[in-house]
Design brief:
mainly alpha; 9 helices; 5% strand; 208 residues; three-stranded antiparallel sheet
Amino acid sequence: MQNYSRNVKSHIWASRTFHRLSAVEKTVYLYLLTGPVTSDTSVYLMPLDQAALDVGVGVDEIERIIKKFEELELVVYDWEQEEICVIDYFQFGTSPVGSLCYEMYAKDFAKINNKELIGFAKESAKRADISISYFAALQDVFPEICEDDFPIRATEKTAKEIREAAKIGRKKISEKRKKKNDTVEEDKKEEIKVEETKEMDPEMFDDL
């Protein structure tokens, strides 16, 4: 999922783990959140030699840093497939709640050979806002998962539908209240009419 702008949330600087990283380690971690091979699924192919070239350090240094990130449980890396899952990607990077469609997420998941990495992404998604498109792509890999287990944020389309439904609901409530008020008013008018009639001709009600 390349060529898309990505954000890094500013509260990453308040993370104790991130704060304790060295300058080059911080750079590598930010690279994992924003680099050219990054996917907003949080799981993607990341060859060490390309990462080393992009960051400007040696392959051995990248390998050392990735191993450290594994120990800190920041990433899970498949050394054979060179595939990575950034565990806190949704916490510090771009959450999958934007306009990206299901097909784009599904395409990126399909590229991954180690499906266990997607399992880590699935667990991370339970702690972050995700779109229904991202959930649908996850469900392709894990058919047993349930929407109720994920904090799915309404997209603009569904948000509009929710607003319309709420508008209709408020209108129905208003009409119901108006009808009830009209009925009460009619009953009051009828009571007043009866009282006025009683005053005008009391004998009409003697047998009642």
